[in-house]
Amino acid sequence: MDVLITGANGIVGTAIVEALGDRDEYSFTELDIESHPNRETVVADVADYEQIRPAFDGIDAVVHMAVYAPGFVDESWEDILRVNVRGTRNVLRAAADAEVESVIFGSTNHVVGLYEREFSPDLYEPEFDLTVDHRSPVRPDSTYGVSKLFGEHDARFFVETKTYPKRCYALRIASVRPAGEDHPYASAERGVDDGRWERDSEAYDRQVARLKATWFSRRDCGHMIDRMLQDDHVEFDVFYGVSDNDRRWFDIDHAREVLKYAPRDNGEEWDGPPSA
Fold first, then answer.
1. From residue 245, how far is each of 4, 131, 222 by CA, in Å?
2. Which superfamily does 2-113+133-182+216-269 belong to?
3. CA distance linking residue 226 with residue 203, whole number of Å
4. Omega before 178 cis (within 30°)?
5. Which of 86, 98, 127, 151 lies 20 to 30 A from 247 at CA?
6. Closest C-alpha to 245, from 177, 184, 187
7. Which residue out of 144, 169, 240, 261 is catalytically annotated?
8. What pairing do the DSSP bridges indicate for beta strands 102-108 and 167-173?
9. What is the pLDDT of residues 57-111, one digit of tens each?
10. Would you call 144 a catalytic residue per the annotation?
11. pTM to 2 decimals?
């Protein structure tokens, strides 16, 4: 299967290539706005349709992870519009024109982020009674979240009104961390390194509790993408990208049932950051 990944140099894109790049059934084309120092990259901006269009020829599936993800205090509407809205439309147009069979769209948990804003920090505890699934009302917490909802709806529009793509999967990604920080203490430890809090502090413990709930390990992320690439039944559907964490409030039963998603990681299995 020939697979094109946009945003291939990003945190999620690299997790996918690391997890699946050696598999015989996949041949990846990596597209990013910048070249990778160690891997061949198609350098193109998703906001420019003519730049990206040639990369879609001969492709069976697209994993669209190119994104502008700002800090939510100071969002830039122009950048969000250019990359997340226009860029996603360009990817879907190119997939349709090149007759690509399936598109995996990298959405975000921020399309339902107001649930967390309303119920945190109690939400981070294992006994808190809330499950957000693919049927729950969307409650975006930011312009970024709104832009990702546009992408989900645009993907559905293309599947249901165009000949191609045949299938689209909206993956509402929780918390994927870089390769060197792939554990549920990553955010807390980064705050220590940046001088924002001490290890024995309420702020540190809160960061640990949150990431133990939202952690989407890199191998579980790669596994989820594999299950979507192997599926041939879904027309359009929404799934949550999160590991099998005891504290999670995002549903994975739907992904288990539809895609046979079988995550291997659980944030509760960690009782501290990895040793040096």
1. 30, 13, 17
2. NAD(P)-binding Rossmann-like Domain (3.40.50.720)
3. 36
4. no
5. 151
6. 184
7. 144
8. parallel
9. 999 999 999 999 876 556 889 999 999 999 999 999 999 999 999 999 999 999 9
10. yes
11. 0.96
